[in-house]
Amino acid sequence: MTMKFSIVTPSYNSEKYIAETIESVISQKGNFEIEYFVIDGGSTDKTVEIIKSYERMIKEESPILKCRRVIFKWITEKDQGMYDAINKGFNWCSGNIYAWINSDDIYLPGAFEIINTSFQSFREIKWLKGITSYINESSTIYETGKCFIYTQEWIQKGVYGRECHFIQQDSVFWRAELWEDVGIIEPDLKRAGDYFLWSRFSEKAKLYSVHAYLSCFRKTKGQLSQDMNEYRREMLRVSPSYGIRGKFIVYFFKFELLIPLLLRSLCYKLLFGKHIYSLVELEEGAKPVLKSGSYYDLKKKI
User: Fold this and answer.
1) What is the C-alpha separation between 133 and 170, in angstroms, rounded?
2) 20 alpha carbon, distance to own chain's centre
3) For residues 177 and 205, what is the distance between their CA atoms, to the nearest angstrom?
């Protein structure tokens, strides 16, 4: 079956980086289709001119296009913010695989082929998280990302992003039916809509990790994600209760490095012995392999 990627980019006055974002989507190479929606919030700079230039390139079948087909649509109008724009975009989508990429972030070459192979190989995977690296304003990678693992229970309890590593949105992809089951992101959220969505997804399916570099998050001055206090206030508003075990996990993370090594090992066994991770490993020239195991056993090796 030919897979179709449905990608949404919300934008507003994004003239500095949006060209890189668009190119990182439409230049993906592989045996799949891409439908790409840029939802602009009424930009007053040159963002719309740049979007139109790529619309022309796609219509003229530019050599930059390397997949079976690219469908490109865009609008520019006032909205209620980023998540309102994202909801609008996904309302248009008709593909098998959904994701959104912000207008200053990028996908890495080969990212879609990795996701395509993973979803085609394992029907049980409903959503998938790759590795996010970090770029600066000059588009230089200054920090290489890591392959994090996740457990469904912890996502439901709201641990990730509050007391543990984030689920970075730019390298998350999911099947269309998962979005249809969950519905929309609360449009009045300004920062933590991704956290809200992951919590809802985790009620339906577990998150798989894929050991592959998929995207880069750009850190710039003045971006919304820098205001972590406001982000955390929104997280608290939409977050489920930790529960008793969840609270122990929280306190463990806070004091982990102060705990003697032998006692720390016992804590890992008690707290994380049943924390089962699921991981897709990809080796060049070989079929992808699905691995799972205990976080406790993995932690002893790293």
Assistant:
1) 10
2) 18
3) 11
Residues 6+ apart with CB under 8 A from 147: 130, 131, 209, 210, 211, 279
Domain region containing 262: 4-299
Q: Is 214 in a helix, a strand, or coil?
A: strand
Span 106-157, pLDDT tens digits: 999 999 999 999 999 999 999 999 999 999 999 999 999 988 888 887 788 7
Predicted confidence at residue 295, as pLDDT, reads: 67
- Match 């490095």 to its residue by tokens: 257
As for how many domains the chain has, the answer is 1
d(CA 294, CA 275): 6
Helix (H, G, I), strand (E, B) or coil at 89: helix
Q: Which residues of the chain have pLDDT under 70?
A: 162-164, 222-227, 240-247, 249-250, 253, 272-274, 295-302
Among 195, 189, 200, residue whose Cα is nearest residue 163: 195
Name the one residue in this structure whose structure tokens are 């890992």: 268
Would you say the C-alpha torsion 173, 176, 181, 187 has a positive or negative sign? positive
Q: What's the angle, vertex CA 23, arms to CA 78 and CA 85, rounded to 5? A: 20
Query: Which amino acid, 49?
Result: E
The pLDDT assigned to 273 comes to 64
Q: What is the pLDDT of residues 195-214, one digit of tens each?
A: 999 989 999 999 999 999 99
Residue 301: what pLDDT? 45
Whether the full predicted model's pTM is greater than 0.70, yes or no, is: yes
Q: Amino acid letter at 192?
A: A
Q: What share of the chain is helix, strand, coil (3-state, %, to 5)?
A: 40, 25, 35
| Gap between the Cα atoms of 205 and 187, Å rounded | 23
Question: What burial class does residue 61 get, using C-beta atoms within 10 Å of its C-beta: 0-12 exposed, 13-18 middle, 19+ buried?
Answer: exposed
Helix, strand, or coil (residue 79):
coil
What CATH number is given to the structural domain containing 150?
3.90.550.10
